[in-house]
Design goal:
Helix content: over 70%
Order of helices and strands: HHHHHHHHHHHHHHHHH
Radius of gyration: 22 Å
Number of helices: 17
Largest sheet: none
Number of domains: 1
Length: about 475
């Protein structure tokens, strides 16, 4: 647990900075664009994420894994061949999917925005894609594969400051059009910064010249198969989410999409504090593990980390939800508070599912990974059309909770039955504590016992951690703060 806590904490500085930048962007968006404008901007960002996934062929985790293996084997040829092959696949995918998007731009723009007013801005989104692919598909796995969290964090903080300046300026003067144009400018800035910061790990000339010889040392089909599996799942997941949110706009309006974006943003702000450690430590370490005992220990340590920190974070967010919405957005978004309970309760099971899904990827259990996660996306879509008219504005958060409960249960059963990777006693107790703790806090909050709830959050760490674990954590925090001061 100490190693994943360390990885999460180091990368957490970058995450914290990104949250500060995100809060600033959210506040400006809320004040200048309003609920409807935030709803449209959310659609634009979701579409970019979806198309970036298609064009990068979802190769980030596979590339990171193969780079980590090459470094572990001290094989420079395999390292270079991995980068070359990853770039080659992504260039082909980007060419194909961008061409399709340009050809189908008119109907796509109309469907995404549900209005013809913003069709010209759709082309701005398409121009963003090559730069977002370069970061997500190449530079991010490059830093993760080398486990250079500190350098990655510094690059992200620098990037955040510059991108925020352009976002605020353009939104202030040009409203929604400026916000979407700033996405393009921000992607170019990110690309330039990571080209500079990433030069330590690659040489274009060396990679190209050594590829033919290095290709023999890498299982090319293995990386491609990994990409196909992750691509299929990620593309299906994002496509499902894009369809649901677009149909959500049709049923309850773009303003409702803006309210949902509030709770979605809150989840996306705190989750990286936990998930960064998964990719920074758990995934590469599990990929390199040589026996089931080692893999099981890694899994239980990671689950213990999540189960220690997730419940109090969720309960704290529920406690301060109203004030958080006012801070991040404005009073016009306060109705989003009614969506927080299901959203954050669903996050509990989502984050545990995230660990188990990453475990399948690291162990190259690609077919079952695709089957379970792809199935969860289809269940999410099915439940939306089944329950949307009943639950109304709470449709997406309700389905988020239900589908992640089912996914977590199926992943847990597979790991226990097929991989002999059982949660240890401490993990089981922490999981049950977490369910009871979150349920109790929801009930107490509804009854108005805010002070009792706050005291329970404070007591959580003393109930779920040992004195040695708390001391180690405090020492690590103090050590990192000293480094920052210097």
């Amino acid at each position: 647990m100490k190693k994943i806590t360390h990885a999460s904490f180091v990368m957490g500085f970058g995450t914290l900075a990104n949250i500060v930048f995100g809060v600033a962007r959210a506040k400006v968006s809320a004040l200048v664009l309003g609920v409807v404008g935030v709803g449209y901007l959310a659609q634009a960002n979701l579409f970019i994420t979806f198309l970036t996934t298609l064009c990068s062929f979802a190769l980030a985790s596979g590339t990171s894994s193969y780079l980590a293996e090459a470094l572990g084997e001290k094989s420079q040829k395999k390292y270079n061949a991995t980068l070359y092959l990853s770039l080659k696949i992504q260039l082909i995918a980007t060419s194909i999917f961008l061409l399709i998007a340009f050809i189908a731009s008119n109907p796509l723009a109309l469907y995404i925005f549900q209005t013809e007013e913003y069709k010209p801005l759709f082309f701005v989104l398409l121009l963003t894609i090559p730069f977002t692919v370069a970061y997500n598909g190449f530079f991010y796995p490059l830093f993760m594969g080398n486990k250079d969290y500190s350098r990655y964090t510094k690059a992200m903080i620098l990037n955040g400051f510059i991108v925020l300046f352009f976002f605020v300026s353009l939104v202030y003067f040009y409203k929604l059009e400026g916000a979407i144009i700033s996405i393009l400018i921000g992607s170019v800035i990110t690309f330039v910064i990571f080209v500079f910061w990433g030069k330590k790990y690659y040489s274009v000339k060396e990679i190209a010249s050594i590829y033919k010889e290095g290709e023999r040392e890498i299982n090319s089909w293995g990386l491609i198969k990994f990409g196909i599996t992750n691509f299929s799942n990620s593309a299906l997941n994002l496509l499902t989410f894009l369809l649901v949110r677009t149909e959500f706009i049709k049923k309850v309006g773009v303003a409702a999409n803006g309210l949902y974006q509030v709770v979605f943003s809150i989840s996306s702000y705190y989750q990286p504090f936990l998930t960064k450690g998964v990719w920074g430590h758990f995934y590469p370490s599990l990929s390199a593990a040589t026996n089931n005992k080692e893999r099981n220990k890694l899994l239980n340590d990671t689950l213990r980390f999540f189960l220690t920190f997730t419940p109090p974070i969720i309960c704290l967010l529920l406690l301060v939800g109203e004030y958080l919405i006012l801070l991040l957005f404005s009073k016009d978004f306060l109705n989003a508070k009614n969506l927080l309970t299901f959203q954050l309760s669903g996050d509990y099971f989502f984050l545990l599912s995230y660990v188990y899904s990453t475990s399948l990827l690291a162990q190259r259990r690609l077919k079952i990974y695709l089957f379970l996660n792809g199935g969860a996306s289809l269940v999410f879509l099915f439940l939306f059309f089944l329950l949307a008219d009943i639950t109304g504005i709470k449709a997406i958060v309700t389905i988020h909770f239900l589908s992640n409960c089912l996914l977590f249960l199926s992943l847990l059963i597979y790991h226990v039955k097929e991989l002999s990777m059982k949660p240890d006693g401490e993990v089981i107790v922490l999981f049950l504590y977490g369910v009871v703790f979150i349920s109790a806090n929801i009930f107490l909050l509804e009854e108005g016992y805010e002070i009792v709830k706050f005291l329970l959050i404070v007591c959580w760490f003393f109930l779920t951690t040992t004195h040695h674990q708390r001391s180690s954590f405090y020492e690590m925090v103090l050590g990192k703060l000293k480094v920052i001061k210097r």
